[in-house]
Amino acid sequence: MSRQAGGSCGPAHDRLQTAGEFAKSAEDVGEQYAAAPRSARSVPRRKHGHSATGRGGGQSGEQPKPSPNSRRDGLRQRGTHENGPRADEPFVDLNCAGLTREFLESELFGHEKGAFTGAVSAKPGLLEVGHRGTIFLDEIGDIDPNVQPKLLKVVEEKRFRRMGDVRDRFVDVRLIAATHQDLRHLIETKAFRSDLYFRISTVPLAIPPLRERQDDIPSITQSLLNRICSDMARPRAELSPKALERLCAYYWPGNIRELRNVLERALLFTDRSALEPGDLTFESGPDQRSSSYKPDWTLEEVERFHISEAFSAEGQNVEKTARRLGIAKSTLYQKLKTLHLI
What mean pLDDT comes out for the span 50-71? Predict the structure, then answer.
């Protein structure tokens, strides 16, 4: 599963995402909506009047990782929420990657006082906080198998129990999920429940990687520039035609996360309103879409290239990629995070 969220740059697959993942930033939903692939923009319009669950997946980096503490993270999660009947209700999100079972349960379902060591008071979970609204679960493929049946109960029966409680609580939420993993492969290895998979896959949507969406780069770039300039309290900036050509020629292994870093770095070191090719520096190797090894690369660039190619060849499946590279799955996962490939 791929994980894949002024001028034409060529033909426009980064992370499978749900129909609701369009613009988490409430102040400029319109700009972020423009960052979605054209073929995907009609889906939320059809879906926004319903409470159907959705699942997406694809290559990481297509959007910044969602965080409960950052309103700027993400490019797509909020579109269905903002444009539907739940727009006035809460929108909450949680990145499930790397969370222990106990912490994940506490975050999702909440807990009662004394439910576990350190539970000095009762705490509502995100399901309660997001009642009547939308909850977005990123990296749902990483959810502990023991938590999956409890999440399935929420989806099917709209009820759950806090940790340490004996009574059911009822909740009405729209669930949106995303993952860079191949959930069907996880089902085969018994790491993900098939019944949960089919319940969250009502509206699956594939978002291609940035390198396969060259036509979208100009609009995404200008949207990011506007937001970065606003954050820096500086005048609006634009790219010169040659600078835009350079962005379009790059293969973007880090997707939109890497694009934002390149633009932010350029704005930090220049006061000009028009960015030139010389203002753009890349950390991921040479500027080429059909990447091929060059002997003048640094060791980090060679490692990034080799891991990125293997990760893509194995459909962004961490287990298969680790087996292909001959390293432990945990080692590969850390390298993918360090190299900003997930």
Answer: 46
Closest by CA to 138, choosing from 9, 20, 266, is: 20
Q: How many CA atoms lie within 13 A of 111 on its CB side?
A: 17
Domain assignment of residue 6, yes or no: no
**83 and 145, same domain (yes or no):** yes
Question: Encoding tokens for residue 111?
Answer: 């807990």
Are 174 and 37 in a shared domain?
yes
Residues 6+ apart with CB under 8 A from 326: none
Alpha-helical runs (H) found in 110-170: 126-129, 148-157
Residue 268 belongs to domain spanning: 211-279
Q: Is the pLDDT of residue 180 over 70?
A: yes
Q: Do 326 and 221 belong together in one domain?
A: no
Over the stretch 232-281, which tens digit does the pLDDT of each residue have? Answer: 999 999 999 988 988 887 888 888 889 999 999 999 998 888 999 888 88
- Structural domains of the chain, count: 3
Q: How far apart are CA 275 and CA 280, in angstroms?
A: 8
pLDDT band at 11 (very low <50, low <70, confident <90, very high): very low
**What is the pLDDT, as a whole number, of residue 289?**
43
Strands 238-239 and 110-111, by their bridges, are unpaired
The contacts of residue 203 (CB under 8 Å, 6+ apart) are: 18, 19, 43, 47, 52, 53, 54, 55
DSSP β-bridge partners for residue 275: 239
Asked whether residue 173 is assigned to any structural domain, the reply reads: yes
